[in-house]
Every structure is written in C-alpha cells, then in structure tokens.
Amino acid sequence: MSDQPILFSLNIATLCIILFSTHQLVLRAHGRQMYWPLALCLMSIGMVICLPSVQRLIPQFQVISLILSMPALLLIAPCLWLYTNGLTSQIPWQLKLKDGMHLAPAAFGCLIALVALCLPAQYLNAILVTEEHSVIEQAPGLVRNTIYGLLISAFLIVLGWVLQSAWYACKIVFRLRVYRAQLQDVFASTEQKELRWLNWLLIVVGGVWMFTAFNLVLDNLFSPMHFDARLYALMIFMVIYSLALWGLRQKPGFAELYVVSPSAGSTSIELKSISGSSDNGEQKYQRSALSAKQATKIAEKIELAMKSDKLYLDAALSLPKLATHIHTSPNYISQTLNETLDVRFFDYVNQYRVSAAKTQLRETDSTILEVAMAVGFNSKSAFYTAFKKYVKITPSQYKKQYHPAN
After folding, report:
1. What average pLDDT score do residues 308-323 get?
2. Is there a contact between 85 and 93 (Cβ–Cβ < 8 Å)?
3. What's 34-89 look like in SS3?
4. Tens-place pLDDT, residues 387-396
5. Which residues does 124 contact at the CB level (< 8 Å), separation at least 6?
6. Domains annotated on the chain, with CATH
7. What is the largest CA-CA distance in the chain?
8. Measured between alpha carbons, how far is 387 from 55 in angstroms, rounded to an integer?
9. HSE of 370, CA atoms in CB hemisphere, 13 A
10. How many whole angstroms separate alpha carbon 15 and alpha carbon 42?
11. Crossing angle for the helix pair 62-88 and 35-49, nearest 10 degrees?
C-alpha cells in the first residue's frame, strides 16, 4: 500500500496536465480546427487513466469510469491521426464528414457502454469490481446472456484497440514521410517543421502501447502481469506531458501558405508526393499550361535571383517568397524546378548556400557557426547535414584543408 500515495499523486498530476492542455487547445480550436482532435485525444486518455483518482475521490463512480473507458480507448489513435493530418495539411485543416469513419469503432464502444450501464448495479459490481463471477450464474437468463455478450464484446474491443493502434501508428509514420518530402518542395529550411518530436513520441507511446496491450490481452485471457505500477504511471505522465507541451507549441508546417493569398483557390501549392502523382491519379502538372519556353525563362529568373540577388541568404526563404520576388506563379516555379531543373526547391537553395559556405571557409577565419548563419542556415546541425550531403565531407574537414593550423 506504500505506493498508493505516489500513484495517486502521479495520476492527479497527469489529469491536471490533461485538463489544462485541453482547455488551452479548445480555446485555440476556434481559429484552427486541427486542435480539436488533440483535445479529444487528451480527454480520452484522461478517461482511460483516471481510475486511481476516481477510486480514492469518488468511488461511487468507479464502475461508470471503467465502462466509459472502453469507447475512450478507441478514440485515442484516430484522434492522434486526425491531429497529424491537421499539422501536415497544405491548406487550413477542417473536420470533414468523411473523417467520421475514423470514429466508428468508438461509436460501437459507446453502444456497448450504454448497454452495460443499463444492467443492474449488483451485476456491474460483480463483473468490474469484486469479480464475483458466481453472481452472474444466478442472474436471470436474459441478463446472464447480455453479460456474456458484453464480456465478449469487451474482449473484442481490447483486441480491436491493439490492431487499431498499430494501424494508425503505421499511417502516421507514412504520412510524416510524405510530409517531409513535400516540405522540401516549398521551404529551404525544414528542420523546425519536420515534426521529429512526433516520431520520438510514437516510439515512446509504442513501447507503452505494446506493454499495455500485452497486459490487457493477458488480463482478459489468463491473468495480468505483475509490474511496478509507479513506473508505469511515471511513463504515462511523461508521455502526456510531452504530447501536451509539443501539441500546444506546434503550428502546422504549411501555415505560411495559408495567408499567401486571400483567395481560397490560391492558398495551396501543388506539392510533389513520393508517388509523383496527384490525389486523383493524374500525373502531376499534366494539365499545366506552362510551356518549355516559359519554363526556361522562369529557370533563368530563378538563377538570377540566387546569383545576383543572393536570395538564398534569407534563412526563412520559401517558394511563395521566391514567387513574389520574381513575380511568377508558385506552381510554375515548382514545375520548373521539378521538371526542367530536376531538383527540389530545398536542394536547389541549399546547394547555393553550401557553395557560398565553401568560399567563406576557404577565404575567412570565421567559425563554422558564423559561416552557417551567414549563408542562410538557421542551425549548425542543418549546415553540417547539407554540407556533407553535397561535399561528402564535414565543414570542419573542409576548413582544415585550407587552414591546417585551425
């Protein structure tokens, strides 16, 4: 019993973070609907993990809490997926009718919970609290059959949650891969937009999920594993804290495009996906009116902007900025880069930055960080990654070739 105060404290702290973060997300959701799924995700997690606090503070609601945790469990993964869609959307994300299909399993869980709440209290207590299964055998035939049906449904829900979570985790990982490729068609610096924190969070959540799923399946089939509940509660606290912290501070990666033009039709830029085709299956740019002659002129204007105007020195350079500078459609620039020059916007700009950095490393005594900032990179790590990609050695190694004493 000595660990009960610690468990209770951790549970209360986690629930407080959930309540505070949910409130903040709901306030922000009036401007951006992408925060609604994250708020619902956090509330669902709170419903699933609140049992220690309910047992101590309001034990009369213990049974209700356990029953409502079933549909809440099925909401977590779909909501995190919808939130990821919102973060990676090329246009302001809005909840659509078709998104409702992701909530269908949770709706089934709500139906099971509603049926369970209609059972007499003594049977619910026997099933969920005291585990006196002999009481079920003494129940009237209809009630007994309903209870057995609910137990089977509860097991299927747990199994479905395991499969559902794995499915959505894979979808999120693949979506992030596509998103990062799309970023490189629009931005010259992407490290602050790549949502790396979401990858790490998925790894941690995946570990907690695998442990929880394994234990839930064992609990329903055999007997639960014995483990230090305090460690598990601490892991849950850290996951919730990280999700709430990054969720509150993260903006959509393409947010800068949302205000490029007041017209609804020009807020998005046609981006190159990994598959190289558009959503409707047509090849990208198939219906474009851009001719080869126009593309050549645009390529010349882009090259002039880089060589003469040194636009690559702008650490926040993006495709819309370049389009404004050379007075050309962003889609035409994207098409010219991808088809005529056969390069992504990200690589095109960073090649100029690395070339300028090589000159500074040869001809000046500036530090690596000073050179990185001077040529348009906004972090030392991004500079090292780009430099090694194009030059095949690190900036330090390159500098020593011309300044051995350093």
Report:
1. 92
2. yes
3. CHHHHHHHHHHHHHHHCHHHHHHHCHHHHHHHHHHHHHHHHHHHHHHHHHHHHHHC
4. 999 999 999 9
5. 63, 67, 116
6. 4-258 (1.20.1070), 288-402 (1.10.10.60)
7. 91
8. 57
9. 6
10. 9
11. 150
